Amino acid sequence: MTTSRGDVSGLERERLLTWLRLARVVQRVEQLLTEQVRRHGLTMAQFDVLAQVGADTGCTQQELADKLFVTKGNIAQLLDRMEQRHLVERRPSGTGRANRLFLTEAGDARRAEVIDEHERLAASVFDGLDDDELVSLRRSLRKVDRSLRDRSRRMPSL
């Protein structure tokens, strides 16, 4: 609730400060993880492709684009560069014009090299929390996520 001067109430202020803190934490984590991936000669987009194709070998370019929330055109350009580096290969699906995506031997080795370190680094973000705090944070974030999902379902489509 706002006052006549436009000030936010105590609860609204706490919510706003929590949102700002969450945004700052997310930004710092993204910077940390991006730096780690760059040390391995990859962009985050390339890492995402290695992780997704490694987890879903033989997916199509469209399926990959959908998972990464980007256009098929963006994926095509990214895959062109990754093919030049011998990290991925596109193979005809045998039906239609779709290509299936596979990691090369070099791509699979790069994925294995980076992903373990990446997961350890991501998990280490929570080193300052004890088990109860971690469980509580995860539950709280799940509630926020569900609330946002429910809100987006109620919003009319444009």
Describe the structure.
This protein has six helices and two strands; from the N terminus they run ααααββαα. Helix 1 (10-38) runs antiparallel to helix 5 (105-124), helix 2 packs across helix 5 (105-124) and helix 3 (61-68) crosses helix 4 (72-84). It has helices spanning 10-38, 44-55, 61-68, 72-84, 105-124, 131-154, and strands spanning 88-92, 99-103. The mean pLDDT is 91. It is mainly alpha-helical. The chain has two domains: 10-125, Winged helix-like DNA-binding domain superfamily/Winged helix DNA-binding domain (Arc Repressor Mutant, subunit A, Orthogonal Bundle), CATH 1.10.10.10; 129-158. The longest helix has 29 residues, at 10-38.
Topology:
Blueprint lengths: L9 H29 L5 H12 L5 H8 L3 H13 L3 E5 L6 E5 L1 H20 L6 H24 L4
Antiparallel strand pairs: 1-2
Helix pairs in contact: 1-5, 2-5, 3-4
Short description:
This protein has helices spanning about 10-40, 45-55, 60-70, 70-85, 105-125, 130-155; strands spanning about 90, 100-105. The protein is mainly α and about 160 residues long.
